[in-house]
Amino acid sequence: MLPEELARVRRELDEEAWSAGRYEEAAKLFNEITTSDDYVEFLTLPGYE
């Protein structure tokens, strides 16, 4: 589902907004947080890394 949503976001944005953002990196982080066997108490902590 994540790849489809990422593609939808890209279609909705213009190229400048897409290039200025970190959407692919955010999607990767979201995937790691939600599918990892390790519990992450504060979801923002992995983002700081």
In words, what does this structure look like?
With 49 residues, the protein is an all-alpha fold. 71% of the residues lie in helices and 0% in strands. The protein has helices at residues 2-12, 15-20, 23-35, 44-48. The longest helix has 13 residues, at 23-35. The radius of gyration is 13 Å and the shape is elongated.
Number of strands: 0
**Quick check: average pLDDT?**
87
- Count of helix runs: 4
- The gyration radius over C-alpha positions equals 13 Å
Span from first to last CA?
25 Å
- Shape type: elongated
Structural class by sheet pairing and helices: mainly alpha
What profile does the largest beta sheet have? none
Summary, kept brief:
The protein is mostly helical and 49 residues long.
